[in-house]
Amino acid sequence: MAAIRVREQHIAVFGGSGSGKTVLVSSFYGAAQEQSYLKESLFHVIADDTSQGTRLHQYYLGMKNQAKTPETTHFAATPYSFTIKLKDQGDTKATSRRPFDALRLVWHDYPGEWFAEEPSSATEAERRLHTFRALLRSDVALVLVDGQKLLDHAGEEEKYLKALFWGLRDGILRLKDDLLDDGEPLVEFPRIWIIALSKADCHPNLDAHGFRDLVVEKAGSDVTALHEVLRGMVELPDALSMSEDFMLLSSAKFEPGKIELTERVGLNLILPIASLLPLERLVQWSERFDIPRKWLDRLADNAEALATALVGAGVVATLLNKVPKVGPALGRVALPAVATALKLGAPRIKEANAEARVNKDHMTTVLTQFRLDLDQGVEEGHLVKSYR
After folding, report:
1. pLDDT band at residue 88 using 50, 70 and 90 as cut-offs
2. Which of 64, 80, 248, 256 is the most exposed, having the fewest neighbouring CB atoms within 10 Å of its CB?
3. Residues 6+ apart with CB under 8 A from 139
4. Angle at CA of residue 190, ends 189 and 195, nearest 5°
5. What is the spatial distance between Cα 256 and Cα 174, in angstroms, rounded to a whole number?
6. 269 closest CA partner among 165, 126, 373, 358
7. pLDDT digit string (tens) for 289-328?
């Protein structure tokens, strides 16, 4: 039996101690092990490190059955790797047509307290640098705003928000000289920085638009200052989204003596955001300015492979053939532009999704569903996306 072909997508998560990073990843993985999820989903979420998966599942069950949250971690930078493997690889025709068989999500957990405190030794300083270099492969970074801390600072939210964004800015500045290649800007770097409200259940009356407005009102200049630091680190700085995307994240609804894990917000968007949002953003950037061909795949990991799999459904491919400068005549050079499929309206995507299901083209089914999930996240007020 041939080995399955796996494509990796990376996401970096920045958040201080107690901001909910471990709870988020435990809820993400644990929910995918529930019988109801396994019955309905087209894919398995498999922890590549078995012991790590057991620990995350244990945390999840502790929340579910005992209302017990994982212990708060300090200065812990943990990468988590999950393979998203189709339950059914489909028929031979569908398998041979797609460019890969499974996605791997690598979740880099970078402790925000590293940006607030100086390293205690040269060894720790090197560890921080090594950890940051590892997450440079990520297309997407999440900056977690702790919903509980925001609530604790009600009426003076700027005190917390300014400390958060200035700490992140200064921490990156301290690493800058060591990260740059002989002083040259980086091509490979997280290009989409999403500001995410963790513990969103603490703010039941706040949607993603309201959260965005709060951050801009209270700390807009601080976010802009962080944006300028990031722009100074990368080649093609226009291909960078910061303070343009906002989302809500809640692992569960927390009540005294009870944690309701079925009432989650935003975690179903993690996979679509990690896989399709960079592709969508690449299309938007390529329409605004010329991007050197050699940089395309480095600006968005697996752009060609994801675009090819996304348009596996005949209805999408047929529509794209009618779009000038996008059809297959341009061959591989045009493949990133094929992601124009992402701009198709929901009815067309739903049609493509239905066709892929009928044809047992399961990878295209999953990716078109991811596209629909992003739309639904926007419609439900859980996500604000940049259209720039």
Report:
1. confident
2. 256
3. 9, 10, 11, 190, 191, 192, 274, 277, 278, 299, 300, 301
4. 155
5. 41
6. 373
7. 777 767 766 787 887 777 777 776 565 666 555 544 444 4
DSSP letter assigned to residue 234: B
pLDDT at 117: 76
Q: How far apart are CA 363 and CA 356, in angstroms?
A: 8
What's the token pair of residue 200? 């969103």
| Burial letters 119-148, b for 16+ CB under 10 A, else e | eeeeeebeebeebbebbbbbbbbbbbbbbb
Show Cβ contacts of residue 77 under 8 Å, excluding neighbours closer than 6 positions: 108, 109, 110, 111, 114, 127, 128, 131
- The predicted pLDDT at position 326 comes to 43
pLDDT over 60 (residue 338): no
Q: Tokens in use for 218? A: 């209270």
Quote the CA–CA distance of 342 and 385 in Å, as a whole number: 13
Which of these, 136, 179, 170, lies nearest to 299 by C-alpha position? 136
254 or 33, greater pLDDT: 33
The pair of structure tokens assigned to 187 is 């091509």
The alpha carbon dihedral of 131, 133, 134, 140 has a sign of positive
Domains of the chain: 6-278 (3.40.50)
Query: Which pairing describes strands 192-198 and 140-146: parallel, antiparallel, or unpaired?
Result: parallel
Amino acid at 273: I
- pLDDT of 331 reads 39
Our measurement of the distance from residue 258's CA atom to the centroid of its chain's CA atoms, rounded to an integer in Å, reads: 28
Element (H, E) at 178: helix 157-179
CA nearest neighbour of 175 among 251, 224, 118: 118
CB-based contact 206:157 (threshold 8 Å) = no
φ, ψ of residue 112 to 5 degrees: the values are: -65, -25
Mean pLDDT rounded to a whole number for the chain: 85
For helices 157-179 and 208-231, give the axis angle rounded to 10 degrees: 30
